Amino acid sequence: MMTEREFDVLLMGRSSIDLYANDIGAPFPEIKNFAAYVGGCPTNISVGTRRLGLRSVLMTAVGEDPVGDFVLHFLEQEGVVTDFIPRKSGRRTSAVILGIEPPDKFPLVYYRDNCADIELTIGDVLAAPIARSRILLISGTGLSREPSRSATIFAAERARDSGTKVVLDLDFRPDQWHDARGFGVTIRSVLRLTDVVLGTADEVKAGALREDVSVTVEHSQVSGAYVSGDVLQAVEAILKAGPEALALKRGGEGTTVYLKSGETIEAATFPVDVYNVLGAGDAFASGFLYGYLKGWDWHRSARMGNACGAIVVTRHGCANFMPYEQEALTFIEERGGF
Question: What's this model's pTM, rounded to 2 decimal places?
Answer without folding.
Answer: 0.96
